[in-house]
Amino acid sequence: MWIQQNPSSPAPLADLQGRAVGLKFECQQCNTEVFTDLIGVPAPNDQADSPEHADNHEIEEIKCPGCDMTHQLEVDSTFDGVTFKVSDAKTVSYQVAE
C-alpha cells in the first residue's frame, strides 16, 4: 500500500526505522511516475549531544525513465519521524518493504 508523504508531518519513526522503503513520485518535468529501488531508513543518531544533532540522512539519485532528468532522493530520519524528499517531484509516496 502506497502512503503519500505529508510535507508538514513526518512519517512515524517506529514504523520505518531499520526498514527498507520504496518511493514513487511524479517527475515535475515530464509527468512520468517514477519508482525507486528499496532505500534503507537510517536510525537517528542516539549518541548526539542534542536532538538537533540527531538527524541522519540517506541520499541517492535516480534518473527519470521518461526524460533522463536526475532526481536527488533524501531520507531524513529524526526522533520526530522520517521525511522523504525528492528534487523536482510533484508528490512523493512511500511503501514499506515486506
UniProtKB/TrEMBL annotation:
The lineage of its organism: Bacteria, Pseudomonadati, Bacteroidota, Cytophagia, Cytophagales. This is Uncharacterized protein. It comes from Hymenobacter ruricola. It comes from the Bacteria.
